[in-house]
Amino acid sequence: MSADAIRRASRWPVWECWVSQNWRDVDGPVHACFSRQHDDGRVAASFFEVDLLTRGVVEARGKAGVEPVQVHQELARRSTEEAPMMAVDPALVVKLVSTAADYGRKQGHEQPSNLSHASGLFGDIRGSRCREDIPVGGPDAAPVAASSGEGWFASVKRSLGFGS
Fold first, then answer.
1. How far apart are CA 144 and CA 138, in angstroms?
2. What is the 3 state secondary structure string of 91-140?
3. CA neighbor of 154 nearest in space, from 131, 132, 124, 121
4. Under 8 Å between Cβ of 84 and 106
């Protein structure tokens, strides 16, 4: 679907958001899903695979106009016995994806070309609402400040007391 379809869908109510149960582990792939549902039942969903050890976001796909059953089928495909998918707060998905992308770039890895398209579905949801820390890098990695999922201007406004 086009970027316009995702942009329009970013104003729909948040529907379901999921991450792999192993999202705190940096050793394996972590999957995430962010979705919104229109009042008429149409769904827009973005799926991500992240590598928190080195590469950041490995896969990003966003599509509008899908059926709820299609989202659940994709969740089942990404779920494993070792890392089943679990429902989470939308801000966790935003923070996970933005932190992974920032870390991957800092490690010199190009992020997927469709990352901004897929993450456009986040709309007004900010990772800064999530209080969880997103672990990145191996045991010898230097601590990295987790991304808030907000832009530079928004962070400046917040630091001056003009926003939440």
1. 12
2. HHHHHHHHHHHHHHHHCCCCCCCCHHHHHHHHCCCCHHHCCCCCCCCCCC
3. 124
4. no
Q: What is the pLDDT of residues 78-130, one digit of tens each?
A: 999 999 999 999 999 999 999 999 999 999 999 999 999 999 999 999 999 99
Distance of CA 24 to the CA centre of its chain: 14
Q: How many whole angstroms from its chain centre is CA 119?
A: 7
What the block records as the tokens of 130 is: 């999530």
Long-range contacts of 41-45 (CB under 8 A, 24+ apart): 41/68, 42/66, 43/15, 43/67, 43/68, 43/70, 43/71, 44/1, 44/5, 44/6, 44/9, 44/10, 44/12, 44/121, 45/70, 45/71, 45/74, 45/121
Among 24-33, 36-45, 154-163, name the one with the lowest average pLDDT.
Answer: 154-163
